[in-house]
Write a structure and sequence with these properties.
three-stranded antiparallel sheet; alpha/beta; 216 residues; 7 helices
């Protein structure tokens, strides 16, 4: 379960605070695969970052005991001067993993980076960084995986490999997905959150949520 208590997120501007999310009170069950719906600028990616702990609420709190991934499309959270291998070790330490060799070799193999795995992440192309970021996330057994248009990673064969790896993880985990692809949402999710006007509403039915979203 992930519980949001009076969560707001705003950014300061010269005209005062610009709210993205305002006073969200919502509980996300841990046994559902949840889509986050909303128009552009509604705060979908912001909410995903807050849940993943890579950004913080301006006010309020998020409570959970689940082991939650960072947004899997995120490839900007690594240290550019460190190699791919060194970044894996760094992430392992953050999550309390002491024996890192197995995860290092998994990431190297899955990402298909070859010798580039030993080079600074800052030297990677955007495609290499995306592959690397997804591979790192697959190296851990999270309770909840956060997906932000993740199916766009790499070429067709790599996307297929990503989808298969993620499906294997889902035997013991759930997902929270941001996507504009309604077919993908219906295929992957069985509940939804609709963000509108800075607020959030939870729907047990994906079809009902999509109907409301289409009629905003």
């Amino acid at each position: 379960m992930i519980k949001l208590n009076q969560v707001s997120k705003y950014y300061p501007t010269r005209f005062g605070p610009k709210y993205v999310l305002r006073n969200l009170n919502i509980t996300l069950p841990g046994d559902r695969d949840i889509a986050i719906l909303g128009q552009n600028g509604a705060g979908k990616s912001t909410l995903l970052r807050l849940i993943g702990g890579i950004d913080f609420p301006s006010s309020g709190a998020i409570e959970t005991k689940r082991f939650i991934s960072w947004p899997l499309a995120l490839s900007s959270g690594f240290q550019g001067i460190m190699s791919g291998r060194e970044n894996v070790r760094f992430v392992c330490r953050i999550h309390g993993v002491r024996e890192t060799h197995e995860i290092e070799e998994f990431v190297k193999d899955f990402s298909e980076l070859g010798q580039h795995f030993e080079l600074p992440v800052g030297s990677y192309s955007s495609g290499m960084r995306s592959k690397y970021g997804f591979a790192v996330s697959m190296g851990f057994d999270f309770d909840t995986y956060l997906l932000d248009e993740i199916m766009a990673v790499g070429d067709a064969s790599f996307r297929k490999k990503c989808a298969e790896a993620l499906q294997n993880k889902r035997s013991s985990s759930n997902i929270i997905l941001v996507s504009h692809d309604e077919g993908l949402i219906r295929q992957q999710c069985d509940a939804a959150i609709l963000l509108a006007y800075g607020r959030a509403e939870f729907y047990e039915s994906v079809d009902r949520a999509l109907y409301r979203y289409q009629n905003l």
